[in-house]
Amino acid sequence: IGNGKIEIKVDWKLWKQMLWYAAPLIVVGVANSVNQYFSAQLQQFFLPGSSEENIRQAGIYGGSMRIALLLVMFNTAFNYAAEPFFFKNAASRNDKTIYAKVLNLYLIVGVLAMVGVVYFLDILQYIIGANYREALFIIPILLFSFLFLGIYYNISIWYKLSDKTHYGSMISLVGVAITLSLSYILLPLLGYVGSAWASLVCYGTMVVLAYVIGQKYYPIKYDLSKMIQILLGGLIMIMINIFIKNLELPLLVTYLLRIIILAGFLYWLYQSNKLLLKELTSNFA
How many whole angstroms separate alpha carbon 121 and alpha carbon 109? Predict the structure, then answer.
């Protein structure tokens, strides 16, 4: 530089470190795309009908998937906000308890979003055409699947913080194996419903693997009892909605009842997590 020339050097050691860190994330991205968006192609192969009938069934499934993807959009937005916060925290305070608290925050908002979609599905169904509404009954299964995907995003942050991204690729490939094998088994038996259950088992297994392996290499004390409580709350709310729907009440009465129950659920979530919400609000502020 002293003689006016710029000399470019490659730090091969750093380059290898970056490659070792980033390459498995490519596998993670491809595997996640297969788990999330490959169901229609699998249905065309494994459903028992003719090629035209399988394509039609895949289209019906895709209509319900489009509504359920509202939760995936929330997952993506939450992940974009939370991941930089995780890295910043790891570089400064390294307070591991904050990861567990952020996961509980995700569950609170994610379960509320999931229940909201189910309770107002009568309105949201108009996002898709009338010919594609046959599979609306699988939306709760898909929503729980994508809720587990969001939990996985939060729990699996450890392999990025600890530079062990190869574990992320391994877990994602296990998810792909589950998706492919269960699709092969369930689609001929259950039709497109098999794809929904395969998705739920896939993401549920990935959550368990990420938690178990993460506790070995980057232990974080998650409040499992609180997480289960919130998940059960969401499940009970969906079961209540099924009960209300079976009553066949007038439409206005049905919506008033749903709004009252949703308000009660929101109040319960706030009261049972008041201290956590106040603490996280001050942390993010």
Answer: 18
